[in-house]
Amino acid sequence: MKTTIRFDRAIQKLYRAFHNDTLNPDDCKQCAVGNIMDNNDSWKHLTDKHGSTQLNYLGLLHQNLGRRFNGYSPLELLNIEKSFLKGCGYSGFMKGRRLYRPEDITDKGMLFKGLNEVVSYLFKLDNINDVMDSSVLFNFETSHLQLQD
Fold first, then answer.
1. What does each C-alpha distance from 73 to 48, 77, 144 come to in angstroms?
2. 148 domain residue, yes or no
3. Domain count, the chain
4. Has residue 149 been placed in a domain?
5. Which CA distances in Å does 49 have to 12, 36, 146?
6. Were 71 and a residue from 6, 16, 56, 87 both cysteine, which residue would form a disulfide, CB within 3.0 to 4.6 Å?
7. What pLDDT digit, counting tens, does each position of 4-39 carry?
8. Burial class of residue 88, CB neighbours in 10 A (0-12, 13-18, 19+)
9. What pTM value is reported for the model?
10. Rounded CA gap, 85 and 68, in Å?
11. What residues have CB less than 8 Å from 1, skipping those under 6 apart?
């Protein structure tokens, strides 16, 4: 399967974060985008609300100038983060609503589900067929997970 450089780098960073227990959806430096951005929180200034895909003035400026951060546009970064948070069980993404977080944000199964959403979105962004099972990619056994709908 042919992938892109940005995809490969993002997956490597997320893999390391997952296995080193340095993935935290409530920390802008250790969330999915924080890890893709080399544990830098500068990306959080692209929006005014955690989990939002609404660019603020600064975000729009960077987006309209065509700026890329580790290969990703501001809007792509916000969508990566939103997919991670949704996969982790966060809710309340509607405009004006408060973002609700799950009780245990360190649960490995929950983080895995979040990463699964991110990987699917990264495949989509780079027009790569999502043929891989993320449990194989992150070397994590899903048989121990309790799936909730």
1. 17, 6, 36
2. no
3. 1
4. no
5. 27, 19, 30
6. 6
7. 999 999 999 999 999 999 999 989 999 999 999 999
8. buried
9. 0.83
10. 22
11. 128, 129, 131, 132
